[in-house]
Amino acid sequence: MSSTLARGTGTASRSALPPAASFAAMSAAFAAFFIAAGAPTPLLPIYEANWNFPASMVTVAFGVYAIALLATLLVVGSLSDHIGRRPLLIGALALELVSMLVFLVSPSIGWIIAARIIQGIATAAATSSFSAAILELAPDKRKHLAGVIAGLAPAAGIGVGALFSGVIAQFSSSAAATVWSILAAVMLIALVFAVFTPETVTRKPGAIASLRPHVSVPPAARKEFAVTLPSLIAAWLVSALFLGLMPTILRLKFSIDGPVVSGLAAFAEQGTGGAVALALSNMKPQRLVFGGGFAIVLGLALFISSITASSLPLLWIGAIVGGAGLGAAFTGTIRSLVPLVAAHERAGLFSAIYVVSYITFGVPVIVAGLFLSSTGVTAIALTFGAVTVAAAAAGVVTQLVTRRRTGIKAAGPGER
What we know:
16 helices
């Protein structure tokens, strides 16, 4: 049995923060994980230039984060439903702090890859537990806002992180040290807040059994999960394209090396996604998913046109439109699924959502990097764009067909 604030767990004390303060602190900490995840994007080409490793290693260093996150999520995704949110919050932040310190002292690409793996493990531990805890810590009048934050943090955080490190890299000769020092300090502060955050669920048996790798969508959400799946895949393919491949595309296709430009490209896409998620927070979730898929199709069509015409303005427009689709589709997916499950099923649901997300986020980028030298950046970019358009189009069609079969217009029903 779960409750908004667990009773009798031994974690509630006079030293614990009030739930509202914990809600604000853990929301900020959750965003910080994704700011840190976006920070390497403009720095990886600088590491490549300084350490002279193959361009394919840039995509490997990017992609291993998602693979490590996925593998860990399969194991610990539902753990906080059994042992409580607070232990996972503390453990995830401690491990993320370690990864920031490894980035800080890295002397080679091997160390960067190791730091990305540690970061992926930490983010996996945080993903489902933070998402669920934020919903449970939110005051009753802020429950809707908590759902928006859960959908907003990944896109907005990654975009802000890329822009943050890109600006520092553009104007500082010690960019990496500055970026990782600041983020290490942020994680340390967040860790202190997590220690004083109250527990939100009552422990229940089955913690050891929950570590067996599995993905299970709660039965009540399975139909809606299947309907939103193509749009969810398309949304994270957009993220993979603009975060994992964009620095290489800008350098090889458009002869642009500046780290701030890579950061701006990621921010244009991810930041727009975050802004759309916030601006449309009152829109019905099914309408968000449908509109998001349509915007991804349009944005990626513009991206493909920018590659074939070597047009940088079209690239920027495509990033903004595609980012809007990302924000709408991902936030709409979360808001349409969360109300369908019980409190003790939330971490498992978020685990399933992020397993799909990070397979899509990491694996295609690594595969693209492996073929980069033999196929060429233009062919890779066009193929990636075409696959994303196909996934988004499938999501739009699935939404239309499903709503018609159930007698609901494609605009979608109200909040459930």
